[in-house]
Amino acid sequence: MPRDYAALPRTQVRRSDREVTDESWIKDLLQRAPIGMLATVSDNQPFLNSNLFVYDEVAHAIYTHTAHVGRTRANVEREEQVCFSVYEMGRLLPAERAFSFSVEYASVVVFGTATCISDEQQAIAALHLLVQKYAPHLQLGQDYRGVVPEELSRTSVYRIAIEEWSGKKKEAPADFPGAYTYPTPAH
After folding, report:
1. Residues 67-73: contacts with CB within 8 Å, 24+ apart?
2. Which pLDDT score is estimated for 183?
3. What is the rounded end-to-end Cα distance, in angstroms, of the chain?
4. Distance CA 72, CA 105 (A)
5. Rg of the chain in Å (alpha carbons)
6. Burial group, residue 138, by CB count within 10 angstroms (0-12, 13-18, 19+)
7. Of 176, 184, 65, 82, nearest in space to 125 by CA
8. pTM of the model
9. Dihedral of CA 81/79/86/10: which sign?
10. How far is CA 88 from CA 25, 68, 127, in A?
């Protein structure tokens, strides 16, 4: 009898040989991933939005932002349950049969609740964390002026409180025959 995957815990991965439970590995991928995908829902319709984001280990939360008005904000105000995912693609793994082609990867899926931050100082702090992640070589107050309260009327800053997460990866041996990175090598 086939498994009822819908009845399993939301963090259970299908292939246990690819599951990663090491929280330091999960945190590291959340720290280094450049882009994440935020999944929201409205009237049973899922929506995905790719976002710059920052993982705050101390707060055990993810911060991101969008326009002040729009689909993401409307969805989060109606339904705070969200899913957030990051991934890295490794080498492509060719095979003798097309069906057996594969790819190396690393991914984390976060389940939690998203709220639009209404406190000015918390929103400013979250935006500064974002800048620090993507421009660590620049210093606040020296290389750029920080966010000021008047600018918050143009953005929505979200805090995703992490409830659960799962990690997954596939790695092949370094000498895997024909492995290559995308884009494909020149012929």
Report:
1. 67/154, 67/155, 67/156, 68/153, 68/154, 68/155, 68/156, 69/156, 70/156, 71/40, 71/42, 71/47, 72/38, 72/40, 72/47, 72/156, 72/158, 73/116, 73/156
2. 87
3. 47
4. 27
5. 19
6. exposed
7. 65
8. 0.91
9. positive
10. 13, 29, 24
Q: Residue 108: its pLDDT value, please?
A: 98
**Into which CATH architecture does domain 5-170 fall?**
Roll (2.30)
Q: Residue holding tokens 């049973």?
A: 44
Q: Indicate whether 61 pLDDT > 80.
A: yes
Bond into 183 cis (ω within 30)? yes
pLDDT for residue 5: 81
pLDDT at position 187 is 63
CB count, 10 Å around CB of 92?
Answer: 18
Position 9 pLDDT exceeds 90: no
Strand runs (DSSP E) across 52-140, as ranges? 53-56, 61-67, 81-93, 102-116
Domain extent listing, the chain: 5-170
Stated as kind and residue range, the H or E segment containing 31 is: helix 23-32
CA distance 47 to 151: 27
